[in-house]
Amino acid sequence: MAPLRGTGLPACLALALGLYLLPSAFVAPAPSARPTASGATVRGQVARAARGGGEYDVSDADIQAFYDETISGSGGDPPKGSITAELIVKHFHGVWDDKGTFTRYSGQWKGPPPGGIGKRDIAVGIAGLKEQMKLGKHVVKGGPGNDETQKVIDDGKGWVWLAADMSPGGLAVQLYTSVPYGKRPLLVAKRSEVDTMFEKVNWGIMDKRIDTTMGGPQVIQR
Fold first, then answer.
1. Rounded distance, CA 182 to CA 184, Å?
2. Is the pTM of this model over 0.85?
3. If we measure between CA atoms, which residue out of 218, 177, 175 comes closest to residue 56?
């Protein structure tokens, strides 16, 4: 074989020498040399998955802390013009029938100004919310994970939650008697102590809560 010009080496030998001198950074490590997860890491991942909520598990202590923050205010109704007040009016100013169907109030809001949601409308919405929280009847399933088989109507802890979530019609609120994983809880109370919670509720923290997801990754969406 003719040598490469200027090298004096046969072409095949020059090519082999060039490959040998290539930087080692281009060579992938052998499979046995790649790092592997430790047994403890794997066991931890499996344990988190088995619990359903994973790294976002909500403990009884978490719920108590959430409640303590809920009752850190001076009570009363939510302020006019707040997102929380309008959501409560939209979803609790109306009538429930025996089949669990809610018919929203369709008249004119009292204001002021007339036609706008005012303090009187908010008071009616709050009264409807209190009634439904005490009944704990028209609620939706909660619980960890995305598997519907893991979700329950009532987790037996005695709490009732008001939580927000995105719906086809925009932001909406619903009641839960199990931890509302992946939702944005606003209020929580013992079903036997709903009035006590409203006497001390802190409405000032609701704007933060409406953007805070419980038991799941943070989601900011309005």
1. 7
2. no
3. 218
